[in-house]
């Protein structure tokens, strides 16, 4: 260590040079193993040291020696510049407080912030796993596209979360060494925002911070960073993960197109990444959501590779009767290619019939087993997003040899489940998108007969018209959706059986807005013809307006991998469904028309689709079904033999029951969330005179210290819990629903399986002797729900009544007298309390330091 002014050798830890008197920077990375800071944190070993500070692995004495990451702030200032140091400290503390309020599955939690020996420290959750750099270096083969896209979705989600903060948090140093991969597959950003915490102005913001190659040009002094800087860096990371091409360590250099380096990368995805890495921020995607939507669309548009004909596949199925198993699918990927598999997950597979015939001749063959289904992803039908309907996955017919030549040859295909708008997008919905500045106004604002169609509130619920193909696509993307392919559109309109019209095979002019049906030859309000719906309930798929699809006008047989679904390809796009001037021939669901994508017309509208079913933020979808609740005699005997658990007769008899689908909070309700409730409703903060480990430290302003903000709220009565859930528009789960979420159909002993695992459970045997922040442990149940075992007992709606369970015997009445059921065990209890069939009772007017709750919500019909 030498003085930067006169080069005199200095003692470790010196604050001033003894020769020239210069003040010296606060050096970092000097802590020794075993050092104790503020009588709480014990240094175990250094983890990293760099220009922005040092990071140590430490243990927290107050949390039972739980591992934490201890980050030491470096002093980015010239020797003797005390003012700069104090400014840095002030900003560090302000932003440390901001970061401590963040809560996201892909962010390590901030636990504490303090000063020690004149240096500043930040204490964060210790993230186990390895960096993406180590993951890449440890593999001989390239990373699978599916894996990289999964990581990217996690990264765009967390970066969008940071960008949405007030003020926005810009990461600015995204690179594989700063991204951790946890053992459970979750991504975690480490060292996020640390450079930002000490900036003193624009120059420091744009010159000092970032990593060459991954940082965009504006971080080299060519402009101010913003959220688009993170988009650039993320694209660089994804490009490297896919191609192993290290970013050039030169300013403003974009790497070669990804598909030119690895031919299995879809060209459309390659183009999206290239745009995201544009040197000019204005030419990149303008939000993380737009970037992710473009990536999803690029994959969707490259749907599938062609399959062999159905006859050959059927023979293969006979030879290998277990072809539907996933190990067989892995072998099939070798022949089909990884890209084909990924695309099939979204849009499915298609093949022309060996001998094209009419719809009526093809329909019976669909009842026979088809090997196309063996290559498909298992059908999952979850709750449709608001305003949408589920179209179940399966095989179906596309095309017709009874119509024009462009409908031939007839093909048979497979599509996974998707969700489609019930009606065309309305004028009101599109205007809202314009007002949000995510969509552009139409140039022509009239319909066939109405001059002020777009501006007149009378037509708010009429279909939006006069939009180009790109305007329609932009609207769908703004809703986190996309335009349907023509295959999806036809599947929704014709069903698996290949109907001629959406409602059936017979023409009926009263079921649609069509010429000669008594209307004025113009659009009608969406949903005006409910009797013309498909069996799933989709409306207006015939008549009213033509509808844009994502598909280029290319001849059949339909093959999504032939470029017809690439959004950047020039050419006419397909519209479907006809308009108010239609007739029996043009209203057929197989009819295809082509239109100039840049030409908006007053007879063309659109609707959107998605592959994602709806789940409220922070909740999990728990599937309905018939299952067995409680423990059998064999279960109890097993518990006794393996774990020596006794006295569990309140868990029998096991009873077959049915539960409908519902949503359940992914974690227990936190102190931070409960603080919002009591401050909004003027309800008293939880209290308990017995609080030996300081879990209920509520402050006068009805908040808790930052270190407890993400811990589960405790010391709440049953009525407190019920009132909170109702305030959120939810309810307490029944004990049947709670057990369903914890066990699923597998009837496991613990939510994660049948083996006790100390790394997955916070109880008195394995935990720190107090609650832990929610979601800390990777102990997900069958539906992804966390902390269903340990941490805190959880209130349920149910009265404590002996089994057999029956929902209508009075146990679910909110006014019933008696104790209520607790489930899940806690940090204060033993292993037996954490098994999935375990039941405990507690008076509803009492509260305790180991009792919390989570909420459930009904799935809308």
UniProtKB/TrEMBL annotation:
Keywords: Kinase, Membrane, Serine/threonine-protein kinase, Transferase, Transmembrane, Transmembrane helix
Segments of this protein annotated with the region Disordered: 563-588
Listed InterPro entries: CTDL_fold, Kinase-like_dom_sf, Prot_kinase_dom, Ser/Thr_kinase_AS, Sulfatase_Mod_Factor_Kinase, SUMF_dom, SUMF_sf, Zinc_ribbon_dom
GO molecular function, one term: ATP binding
Entry-linked SMART domains: S_TKc (SM00220)
PROSITE patterns, per the entry: PROTEIN_KINASE_DOM, PROTEIN_KINASE_ST
Domain of life: Bacteria
Keyword Transmembrane appears in the UniProt entry: yes
Pfam hit, one: FGE-sulfatase
SUPFAM superfamilies, alphabetized: C-type lectin-like, Protein kinase-like (PK-like)
Statement: the UniProt record of this protein carries the keyword Membrane: yes
Domain (Protein kinase): residue spans on this chain: 41-299
Transmembrane segments: 326-344
UniProt protein name: Serine/threonine protein kinase
Organism: Herpetosiphon aurantiacus (strain ATCC 23779 / DSM 785 / 114-95)
Taxonomic lineage: Bacteria, Bacillati, Chloroflexota, Chloroflexia, Herpetosiphonales
């Amino acid at each position: 260590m030498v003085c930067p002014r006169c080069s005199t050798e200095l003692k470790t830890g010196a604050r001033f040079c003894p020769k020239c008197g210069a003040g010296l920077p606060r050096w970092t990375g000097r802590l020794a193993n075993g050092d104790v800071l503020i009588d709480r944190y014990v240094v175990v070993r250094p983890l990293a040291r760099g220009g922005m500070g040092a990071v140590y692995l430490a243990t927290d004495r107050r949390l039972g020696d739980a591992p934490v990451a201890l980050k030491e702030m470096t002093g980015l200032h010239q020797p003797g510049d005390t003012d700069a140091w104090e400014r840095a400290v002030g900003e560090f503390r302000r932003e440390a407080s901001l970061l401590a309020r963040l809560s996201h599955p892909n962010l390590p939690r901030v636990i504490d912030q303090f000063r020690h020996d004149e240096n500043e420290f930040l204490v964060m959750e210790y993230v186990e796993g390895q960096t993406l750099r180590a993951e890449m270096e440890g593999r001989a083969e390239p990373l699978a596209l599916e894996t990289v896209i999964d990581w990217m979705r996690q990264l765009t989600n967390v970066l969008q979360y940071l960008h949405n903060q007030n003020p926005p948090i810009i990461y600015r140093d995204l690179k594989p060494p700063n991204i951790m991969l946890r053992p459970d597959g979750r991504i975690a950003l480490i060292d996020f925002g640390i450079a930002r915490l000490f900036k003193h102005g624009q120059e420091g913001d744009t010159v000092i911070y970032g990593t060459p190659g991954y940082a965009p040009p504006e971080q080299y002094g060519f402009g101010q960073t913003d959220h688009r800087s993170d988009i650039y860096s993320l694209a660089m990371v994804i490009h490297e993960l896919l191609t192993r091409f290290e970013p050039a360590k030169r300013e403003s250099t974009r790497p070669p197109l990804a598909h030119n380096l690895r031919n299995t990368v879809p060209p459309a995805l390659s183009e999206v990444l290239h745009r995201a890495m544009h040197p000019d921020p204005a030419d990149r995607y303008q939000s993380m959501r737009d970037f992710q939507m473009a990536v999803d669309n690029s994959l969707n548009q490259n749907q599938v590779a062609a399959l062999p004909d159905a006859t050959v596949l059927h023979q293969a199925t006979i030879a290998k009767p277990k072809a539907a198993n996933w190990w067989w699918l892995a072998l099939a990927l070798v022949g089909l290619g990884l890209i084909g598999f990924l695309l099939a997950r979204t849009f499915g597979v298609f093949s022309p019939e060996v001998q094209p015939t009419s719809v009526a001749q093809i329909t019976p063959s669909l009842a026979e087993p088809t090997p196309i289904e063996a290559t498909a992803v298992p059908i999952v039908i979850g709750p449709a997003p608001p305003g949408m309907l589920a179209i179940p996955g399966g095989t179906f017919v596309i095309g017709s040899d009874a119509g024009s030549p462009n409908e031939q040859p007839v093909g048979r295909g497979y599509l996974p489940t998707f969700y489609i708008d019930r009606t065309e997008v309305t004028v009101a919905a599109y205007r809202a998108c314009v007002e949000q500045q995510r969509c552009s106004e139409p140039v022509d604002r009239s319909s066939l007969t109405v001059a002020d169609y777009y501006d007149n509130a009378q037509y708010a619920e009429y279909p939006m018209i006069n939009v180009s193909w790109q305007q329609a696509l932009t609207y769908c993307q703004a809703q986190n959706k996309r335009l349907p392919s023509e295959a999806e559109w036809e599947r929704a309109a014709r069903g698996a059986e290949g109907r001629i019209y959406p409602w059936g095979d017979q023409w009926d002019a009263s079921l649609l807005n069509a010429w000669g049906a008594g209307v004025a030859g113009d659009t009608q309000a969406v949903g005006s013809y409910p009797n013309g719906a498909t069996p799933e309930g989709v409306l207006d798929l015939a008549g009213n307006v033509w509808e844009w699809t994502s598909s280029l006008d290319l001849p059949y047989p339909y093959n999504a991998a032939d470029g017809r679904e690439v959004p950047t390809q020039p050419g006419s796009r397909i519209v479907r469904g006809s308009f108010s001037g239609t007739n029996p021939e043009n209203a057929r669901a197989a009819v295809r028309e082509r239109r100039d994508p840049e030409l908006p017309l007053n007879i063309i509208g659109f609707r959107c689709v998605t592959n994602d079913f709806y789940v409220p933020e922070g909740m999990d979808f728990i599937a309905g079904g018939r299952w067995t609740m409680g423990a059998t005699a064999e279960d109890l005997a097993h518990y006794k033999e393996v774990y020596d658990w006794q006295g569990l007769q309140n868990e029998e008899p096991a009873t077959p029951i049915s539960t409908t689908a519902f949503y359940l909070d992914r974690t227990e309700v936190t102190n931070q969330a409960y603080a919002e409730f009591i401050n909004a409703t003027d309800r008293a903060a939880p209290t308990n005179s017995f609080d030996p480990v300081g879990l209920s430290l509520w402050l006068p302003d009805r908040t808790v210290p930052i270190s407890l903000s993400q811990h589960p709220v405790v010391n709440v009565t049953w009525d407190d819990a019920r009132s909170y859930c109702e305030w959120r528009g939810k309810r307490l789960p029944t004990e049947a629903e709670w057990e369903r979420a914890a066990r699923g159909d597998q009837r496991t002993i613990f939510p994660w399986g049948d083996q006790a695992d100390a790394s997955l459970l916070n109880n008195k045997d394995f935990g720190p002797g107090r609650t832990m922040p929610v979601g800390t442990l990777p102990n997900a149940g069958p539906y992804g729900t966390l902390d269903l075992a340990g941490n805190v007992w959880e209130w349920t709606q149910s009265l404590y009544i002996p089994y057999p369970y029956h929902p209508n015997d009075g146990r679910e009445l909110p006014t019933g007298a008696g104790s209520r059921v607790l489930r899940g065990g806690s940090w204060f209890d033993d292993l037996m309390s954490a098994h999935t069939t375990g039941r405990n009772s507690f008076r509803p007017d009492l509260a305790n330091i180991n009792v919390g709750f989570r909420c459930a919500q009904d799935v809308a019909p």
